């Protein structure tokens, strides 16, 4: 099955996507990760998007649709679209890409979290630069300070756009451009809304339930 994880910055999309990869062997397609990879590899496109991302604005539809098109062309099955689509134009493009390749979209999981919690989650987040594990100062610290639980790396870092100023812009972008997708997928009968404020395991259980009904 192919699913979309939809929700504001800090809703827990990346955290749950990693769990689905582990538990079900699904393939995570995070446009945020792809864009961060592009910027760290120093390509022309990477340089162009870096500034936009750090400000918290959305990168152009053309660029992210191109990235997803490349990944889908590589094949595979059981995709988790994480942080994509983020605009109605991207949603239409995804629909067309899936049609072309004969794939279906089975479920869109909307993760609901209030703004206050989002600020706490984003400002406390850090990730492992080696394996990508996501941590939080309060809710998910490493067992040993400064060392990744999963891979033992000491390359733990915080994202340039995880500050209150950029987060304000990211939230505005979400409400203006991405939240209309909730109605869009509801109308298509694909939407399942879950409580993203619950503990991580509870959120995972809600997602499992939504997928069993897909
Ligand atoms: P992207 O990388 O997609 O970031 P985002 O949407 O802002 O989402 P985040 O990664 O910040 O949050 P998340 O929901 O994955 O939460 P996480 O699991 O980490 O995008 C970054 C930028 O790239 C965009 O601003 C834009 O510029 C560009 N971009 C990307 N895609 C694009 C697109 N399609 N179109 C245009 N531009 C695009 O969790 C957050 C924290 O909370 C963690 O510390 C975690 O440990 C903790 N946490 C998670 N779940 C729980 C829980 N249940 N209880 C307590 N704590 C929890
Ligand atoms: Zn690690």
Pick out its properties.
214 residues; alpha/beta; three-stranded antiparallel sheet; 8 strands; 50% helix; globular; binds zinc ion
Low-confidence stretches: none
Q: Helix proportion of residues, in percent?
A: 40-55%
Query: How can the largest sheet be summarized?
Result: 5 strands, parallel
Following the backbone from N to C, one meets helices and strands in this order, namely: EHEHHHEHEHEEEHHEH
Q: What global shape is seen?
A: globular
> Which structural class matches the secondary elements?
alpha/beta
Strand elements, count = 8
Helix and strand topology:
Blueprint: E1 3-6, H1 13-24, E2 27-30, H2 31-40, H3 44-55, H4 61-73, E3 79-82, H5 88-101, E4 107-112, H6 115-123, E5 125-128, E6 134-136, E7 156-157, H7 164-178, H8 180-187, E8 191-195, H9 200-212
Parallel strand pairs: 1-3, 1-4, 2-3, 4-8
Antiparallel strand pairs: 5-6, 5-7
Helix pairs in contact: 2-3, 4-5
The protein binds BIS(adenosine)-5'-pentaphosphate (AP5) and zinc ion (ZN).
The site of zinc ion has 8 residues, from loops.
């Amino acid at each position: 099955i192919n699913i979309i994880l939809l929700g504001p910055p800090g809703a827990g999309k990346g955290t749950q996507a990693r769990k689905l990869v582990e538990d079900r062997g699904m393939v995570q397609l995070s446009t945020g990760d792809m864009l961060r990879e592009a910027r760290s590899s120093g390509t022309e496109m990477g340089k162009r998007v870096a500034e936009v991302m750090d400000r918290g604005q959305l990168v152009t539809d053309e660029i992210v649709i191109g990235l997803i098109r490349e990944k889908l062309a590589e094949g595979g099955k059981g995709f988790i679209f994480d942080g994509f689509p983020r605009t109605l134009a991207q949603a239409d493009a995804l629909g067309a890409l899936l049609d072309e390749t004969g794939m279906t979209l089975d479920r869109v999981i909307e993760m609901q979290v209030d703004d206050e919690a989002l600020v706490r989650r984003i400002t406390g987040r850090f990730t492992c630069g080696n394996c990508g594990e996501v941590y939080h100062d309060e809710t998910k610290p490493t067992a040993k300070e400064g060392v990744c639980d999963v891979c033992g790396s000491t390359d733990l870092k915080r994202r340039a756009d995880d500050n209150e100023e950029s987060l304000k812009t990211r939230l505005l972008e979400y409400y203006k451009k991405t939240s209309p997708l909730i109605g869009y997928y509801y109308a298509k009968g694909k939407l399942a809304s879950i409580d993203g404020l619950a503990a991580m395991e509870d959120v995972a259980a809600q997602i499992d339930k939504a997928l069993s009904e897909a």
